[in-house]
Design a protein that fits this description.
The structure is a single chain. By secondary structure, this protein is mainly α. The protein has one domain: Helix Hairpins (Orthogonal Bundle), CATH 1.10.287.3610. Helix content is about 80%, strand content about 0%. The chain has four helices and no strands. Helix 2 runs antiparallel to helix 3 and helix 3 runs antiparallel to helix 4. Bound molecules: adenosine-5'-triphosphate. The site of adenosine-5'-triphosphate has 11 residues, from helix 4. It comes from Allomeiothermus silvanus (strain ATCC 700542 / DSM 9946 / NBRC 106475 / NCIMB 13440 / VI-R2). One of its GO terms (molecular function) is kinase activity. One of its GO terms (cellular component) is plasma membrane.
Length: about 130
């Protein structure tokens, strides 16, 4: 009988431990997908950018890297929101600072990724459409 939450290193079977870790990570993804509208919007934009990059045959690695940054930061933002809601269910200026700062990280990475994506994919897309 395992304890929950599992203690680090408590599982003597490393394969089972690895499988459980993947399971928790996928549950985290599902939580973000179902509870965070922004995560869904960013995922749709990521899929579009990926499809465009494949269609145009340019910038696949760069697009994957930008997707990794934005979605990972959104996942961390979601995790931080959950912790803040757990530890500070009533108003606290530090809770506000934590949530606002994490949101700023997502905003900056999204804006810059969008800009880089436009610079990367915009010209070859126009080229292709003009032909
Ligand atoms: N416990 C709190 N104390 C102080 N301010 C808070 C607290 N909870 C939320 N806020 C403020 O309200 C804003 C919105 O918080 P909320 O929990 O709704 O997250 P969110 O930014 O709407 O996240 P998302 O829309 O991505 O789920 C925060 O950015 C923060 O400024």
């Amino acid at each position: 009988m395992g304890s929950f939450p599992p203690r680090p290193g408590a599982d003597p079977n490393p394969i089972k431990g690895l499988r459980a870790s993947f399971g928790y990570a996928f549950r985290g993804l599902r939580y973000a997908w179902t509870s965070q509208r922004n995560f869904r919007i960013e995922s749709y934009i990521a899929a579009l950018a990926l499809a465009l990059s494949l269609w145009l045959g340019v910038g696949l690695l760069e697009v994957l890297f930008l997707i990794l940054i934005v979605l990972s930061l959104e996942l961390l933002n979601t995790a931080l929101e959950a912790v803040v809601d757990l530890t500070s269910p009533t108003y606290h200026p530090l809770a506000k600072a934590a949530k606002d700062t994490a949101a700023a990280a997502v905003l900056i990475s999204s804006l810059l990724s969008g800009l880089i994506g436009l610079i990367l994919l915009g010209p070859p897309l126009l080229d292709k459409l003009e032909r």
